Amino acid sequence: MQQRSPSYFQDVDTCVEEIVVRVGKRIVLGIPLGIGKPNPLVNALYRRAKADPELRLKILTAITVETPKGSSDLEKRFLEPFVERVFGNYPDLEYAGDLRNGQLPANVEVAEFFFKPGGFLNVPMQQQNYISTNYTHAARDLMENGINVLAQMVAAREVDGESWFSFGSNPDVTLDLLPMIEEARRQGQPVVTVAQVNREMPFMYHDAMIRPVAFDLVLDHPGCDFRLFGAPNMPVDAADYLLGLQASALIRDGGTLQIGIGCLGDAIVHFCRLRQRQNALYNQLLADSRILDHHGDLIQRIGGTEPFAQGLYGASEMFVNGFLHLYRDGILKRKVYDHIPLQRLLNDGAITEAVDAQTLRVLLERGVIPARLAEADVGFLRKFGIFNDRVCYRDGDLVMGETVRVPADLERPESYAAVVANGLGDRLQGGILMHGGFFMGPQDFYEALRTLPERESRQICMTTVRKINHLYGNEELATLQRRDARFINTTIMMTLMGAAVSDGLENGQVISGVGGQYNFVAMSHELPGARSILMLRSTRESGSITSSNIVWSYGHTTVPRHLRDIVITEYGIADLRGRSDKEVILALLNIADSRFQPELLEKAKRAGKIPRDYQIPQPYLNNTPSQIQSRLAKYQEMGVLPDFPLGTDFTEEEIVLGRVLKGLKLRLSTKGALMKTIVRAMTAGSASETAERYLARLKLDQPTGQRDKMIQKLIVSELIAGGYV
Questions:
Q1: Parts of the chain belonging to CATH 3.40.1080.20
Q2: What's CA 319's distance to the chain center, in Å?
Q3: For 389-411, what is each residue's pLDDT tens digit?
Q4: Residue 2 burial (CB count, 10 A)
Q5: Where in the chain is CATH 3.40.1080.10?
Q6: N or C, which end of the chain is more exposed by having fewer CB within 10 Å?
Q7: Distance CA 23, CA 391 (A)
Q8: Mean pLDDT within 76-81
Q9: Which among 1, 32, 29, 33 is positioned nearest to 15, based on CA atoms?
């Protein structure tokens, strides 16, 4: 990596001008996925391209996030105050709006390898430019597209008296790109690296730290700071809770956890916390939900229902706010260490994190350190806290403080005794609780990371996605660290043969992307004791039409059926690993919605994959939404299953209005319910005082025109029907 001093800029347009001067008018811009994008710089460069048709700009990225806008007047009334409060001065990426509206200029192209889920469905240009790749191959594929400008948002801080930048949320791909860029430079290719400092970005340590000299240009001015894009927690409903409850019982104490963002991840975290805090209640819930009746053997074999005595270690491409909640509850507490022999001793139980004479004795007996210590050995022992900071190596001796000096030979009784008496630390140091590639979440998550004490923050290592998502080049250490791993992801559909459909439709439309899902599923088959768990809702709704998410076959696959493992719906768990096709089909039929079981069964029989006389067992023939509600009703009334288990950015009024608007939108889109909804609204009477705060939030408390008066009646009617007024 070059060691030139970067050029600093306070004005974004001047920085853009310098980029053009250095690389010319054909710019291939690589920017991170998610929240690591330097939006003001990207917007200025995009505006420059719009103003200059001779400048050709190609943007390579993933997960272009946008503040919610609302597609109707009523949605805008609801969203605009929320967006102003939660997103503040976050500057939307201007290319995203032009893409959606079909107004991207001919000299600009945007290619992504992962879409914000559903964000660019039916947007032809993005569907055409989508790059299908595993997350671990993203850096390679971006370089293949000819990146000549790499731009990243960074945090800045002095650490031990030296100036450092931190990739903060996104070391994931950039750490892989930097050595590739240096190689391109050695081959004579002009490439410019740009950092934009943002004081809102949490400063993360370890691999995320980078010297300012790694960049050619640095944009640093408070006027370019902006609030990070916050992904609000979404409500968790009964079906989500049943999915999360089952998954939580498959997590083994002392193991490794990977989860994603969204309501299903929040449900898993909620039940892990319940398992820890109120274990008797947790087990009663499992029993009342009949989960133990159907899956007790599987849970006992690979999971558990007891509190987390050893705790969990997090290894997840996405560091979501749920992990921080697990940390605060004393669940995320199993530390791993970047040293193979040390990690092996911890796994074997030969040593613990508490340092004592036994620790030193085991290290000597196992040959981790020699009896005659060299300076490097003392450095290792100090680094991991086995020796305290008072110990130093000097001319073949161990010096401890001002009065103790002995030969650095632990075979000598006097040296060993002196070290035990004066040189040992209290606990191992340098352990990591969480490895993540990127993070995204609500605003309180970012604030917690910004204010986390350094000692605690250093237990989180944001690093390259290649280090997290697969094993190659890191097999031995990763295998030791990721014991009993549970890689829990969501999928859209499952075929009865066990293939997963997670990123796109059979007509070629891309919903999101492969991301790291394939990597984690494949890794679960390589790591001892690891399991891949795919979660999906059994059905989906479009207007008044309900469809099954378990299908006989589908014309698109994300994870092939030979990698099938564990699948969970709200109706149960299917353990598919090592099973025959017949067994896989039977297990998936048992967790399908009962409205679709007969058709699925008949298709399997016609294909000759199931005996003609087979019938689905009686206990699985009542997989219906009403059954879900009945299984959880008692616990919902007890307040055990809140709408937002990890908190929310929505106010109480907004939570209620969110439910009201969702229900109203569904009814107005259904012919059978449309007239009933309108008639009910017309006969609802005038707004009561208790409805005023909801109407005021939508600026409908004093409607002026007939249209607003009708909308007011619809809202009041829905509030009454929901029991809110």
A1: 238-335+433-625
A2: 5
A3: 999 999 999 999 888 999 999 99
A4: 13
A5: 7-224
A6: N
A7: 52
A8: 92
A9: 29
Cα distances from 232 to residues 193, 266, 660, in angstroms, run: 32, 12, 19
Question: Distance between CA 206 and CA 461 in Å, rounded?
Answer: 6
Q: Which residues contact 412 (CB under 8 A, 6 or more apart)?
A: 406
3-state helix, strand, coil in the chain (%, to 5): 40, 15, 40
The pairing of strands 192-197 and 149-159 is: parallel
CATH topology of domain 7-224: Glutaconate Coenzyme A-transferase (3.40.1080)
The residue among 28, 96, 112, 98 whose CA lies nearest residue 62 is 112
Q: What's CA 256's distance to the chain center, in Å?
A: 15
SS3 598: helix
Six-digit token pair at 475? 């097999």
Look at residue 309 and tell me whether its pLDDT is greater than 70.
yes
- Residues 709-714 have a mean pLDDT of 84
Confidence of residue 679 (pLDDT cuts 50, 70, 90): low
Look at residue 667 and tell me whether its pLDDT is greater than 80. no
Q: Answer whether residue 352 shows pLDDT above 70.
A: yes
C-alpha 214 chain-centroid distance: 27
Instruction: Report the alpha-carbon distance of residue 226 to residue 399 in Å, rounded.
Output: 50
On the question of pLDDT at 678 being above 70, the answer is: no
- Residues with Cβ within 8 Å of 56's Cβ and at least 6 positions away in sequence, in order, are 25, 26, 27, 49, 107, 108
Amino acid symbol at 99: L
Distances (CA, A) of 166 to 65, 151, 163, 369, 462: 21, 13, 10, 34, 10
- How far, rounded to the nearest angstrom, does the alpha carbon of residue 173 sit from its chain's CA centroid? 15
Question: Given this model, what pLDDT does residue 683 score?
Answer: 63
The Cα 530–Cα 414 span in angstroms is: 46
- DSSP letter at 404 equals E
Percentage of the chain lying above the pLDDT 70 cut: 97
DSSP state of 515: B
* Joined tokens for residue 233: 């927690």
Architecture of domain 238-335+433-625: 3-Layer(aba) Sandwich (3.40)
Give the confidence band of 663 by pLDDT, cuts at 50, 70, 90. confident
At 428 the pLDDT is 97
Residue in the block written with tokens 């829905």: 718
Could you tell me if residue 599 is left (phi over 0), alpha (psi between -120 and 50 degrees) or otherwise beta?
alpha
18: buried, middle or exposed (CB in 10 Å: 19+, 13-18, 0-12)? middle
How far is 326 from 330, CA to CA, in rounded Å? Answer: 6
Residues with Cβ within 8 Å of 23's Cβ and at least 6 positions away in sequence, in order, are: 148, 149, 190, 191, 192
DSSP character string of 306-360: S--SS-BEEEEEEE-HHHHHHHHTT-B---B-S-HHHHHHHHHTSS-SB-SHHHH
| Confidence (pLDDT) at 162 | 94
